Amino acid sequence: MNRMDKKIFEMAKKEEINTPKSYEDRVQKILDELPESQVEERRKLKIRPAFAMAAVLVLIMSVTAGATINAISKRMNDMSNKEKQQMITDMDKSNADKDSYSRKLTDSERERMDKLREQYENEGRFPEGKVAVVDKEEDAKEGQITFVTTTRTYVIPEKEMTDEQILQIIDYGYKEDYSLRQERRGTEENYDGVVSDEQVAENEEKIKSSNGMSKEAAKELAAKYIKNIYDIDVSEYDVDVNANYDSSYEVHFQKDNSIIVNIDAVNKQLEYIHIDEYEVENNNEKADENLFTNYADTVKEIIINKANLAETDSKYHYEYTLTEDEKVQAGIMSYYFEKSNGKVVQIRVNCKEQKIIDVAIYTEKQYKTMSKTREKQYKELGLKRVSVEMNSDY
Alpha helices, DSSP H only, in 233-363? Predict the structure, then answer.
C-alpha cells in the first residue's frame, strides 16, 4: 500500500502480496460503472481517503452524478499512457504515507478545498492549468504549485492560494489515483474492480470450503491483534468484515480512529494491520541511532511476546532512508524480523511519536523483490538507505 510502506506494499502486490481493500471496494462499486474507465483507486493504501470518501459521498448523493461522472471520465481518459506511467513512476519515488504542504493551510484554504473538491466531483469544475512536478524541492517552479515526488510535498505560495491553484492540487490527486487504478488493472490478471454480492458470496464459500475461519472468528482474532499491538480495546468500535478473493478477511474497525486488519482465513493468522492514528505528516526527523536501538526492545516485546508474530531467535534489523540533510525521510523507520519459515515481518514506526503505524508479513520472495525495488529507486534518487543489524538475543 513500503509495507509497511504503502507504496512498496502495492509494488509487492505484483508478487502476489494481498493488500487491504476497504475504501477501495466502496469507491470501486460506484466508480467502476464508468464506461471502460474508472476515477479512483486506493493507494494502500495509496489513495488519500480525503479524495476517495469525498468522491463516494458526492457521487451517491448528487442528482447530477451521471453527467459529472461522464465529465470526470472524459478528463481521466484524456490522459496519455505516457502521462499515466509517469505518475506511477513518480508515486514510487517516496515512502511517505501522506501528502503534505510546504506551509500550513489556512482555515479559508481548507474550507475552499472542501468546497472545490465537491465542485470538481459534483459539477465538473476543473482547473485550467496543472501543477509542476519535480523530484527535489529546490527545483520547485516559482509562482507555480509544485509537487515534490520524493517527499510528496506540494510547494505552495506563502500567500493565500487561489481557487485555480487549489483545483490543480485536487486534479493532480484524482489523476494520480486513476493512473494507479489503470496500472493495477494491467498487472492483476484476475482483478475485477466491481465486487458484487455474488462475488462476495463466492469469496465466503471459497473460505468455507477450505475450512477457513468464520467472519466472527476473524473479527475476534483481528481485535486480539489490535489489543496486543496497539493496546486498544475495539469492543465499542463499528466493525465491517469482508471476504476477499484470496481467502482472507479484511476487518475494518472505526470509531475515533480507523484500523484495518487483514486475516488469512485459512491459516488463521495476521497478514496486515494498519492504524491511521499514528501516520506521520511526512515530516523528516533527525536520525538518532540510540532511539532506534532502544525502541527495538519495545518492538520485540510487542511482536514476539504479545502478538506472537516472530520467534525469540528471529534475526532482525531496522532500516530508514536518509535525506540529503541527514534526516530520516518522512519520519519513518522500519523493523524487520526474519522468521524460520522464510517469511519476514515488517513493522513501520512513527519516529517522532515512537508508535507503530502498521505491521505486514511478507513471503521471502516478496521481501526480496521489495528490497531490490527500494535499492534501485533510492540509488536513482541519490538517497541513502541505512540498514542496521540487531542482536537477536532476547
Answer: 289-300
CB 44 within 8 A of CB 107: no
| Contact assessment for residue 312 and residue 303, using Cβ atoms and an 8 Å cutoff | no
Neighbours of 300 (CB within 10 A): 21
Residue extent(s) of CATH 3.10.450 domains in the chain: 204-277, 285-390
Q: Which is nearest to 8 in space by CA: 394, 388, 367, 270? A: 367
Half-sphere CA count of 128, side-chain side, radius 13 A: 4
With a CB cutoff of 8 Å and minimum separation 6, the contacts of 52 are: 23, 24, 26, 27, 40, 42, 177
pLDDT tens sequence across 97-150: 678 899 999 999 999 999 998 888 777 888 988 999 999 888 988 889 999 999
Q: Residue 308: how many CB atoms within 10 A of its CB?
A: 12
**In the chain, what's the furthest Cα-to-Cα distance?**
63
Rounded CA-CA distance 166/50 in Å is 14
CA angle, corner 153, sides to 253 and 2, nearest 5? 50
pTM to 2 decimal places:
0.56
DSSP reduced 3-state for 350: strand
SS3 content of the chain, % helix, strand, coil (to 5): 45, 20, 35
Query: How wide is the angle at C-alpha 388 spanned by C-alphas 382 and 391, nearest 5°?
Result: 175
State the burial class of residue 350 (Cβ atoms within 10 Å of its Cβ: 0-12, 13-18, 19+): buried
CA-derived radius of gyration, the chain = 21
- Extract the C-alpha cell encoding 209: 470450503
Alpha carbons 106 and 112: distance in angstroms, whole number:
10
What the block records as the C-alpha cell of 316 is: 532482525
What CA–CA distance (Å, rounded) separates 287 from 209? Answer: 50
Q: How far is CA 372 from the centre of its chain?
A: 20
Q: Is the dihedral of CA 147, 52, 276, 217 positive or negative?
A: negative
DSSP 260: E
Beta bridge partners of 315: 338
User: What is the arithmetic mean of pLDDT over 375-389?
Assistant: 78
The topology (CATH level 3) of 285-390 is Nuclear Transport Factor 2; Chain: A, (3.10.450)
What is 204-277's CATH number?
3.10.450
Print the SS3 string covering 96-114: CCCCEECCCCCHHHHHHHH
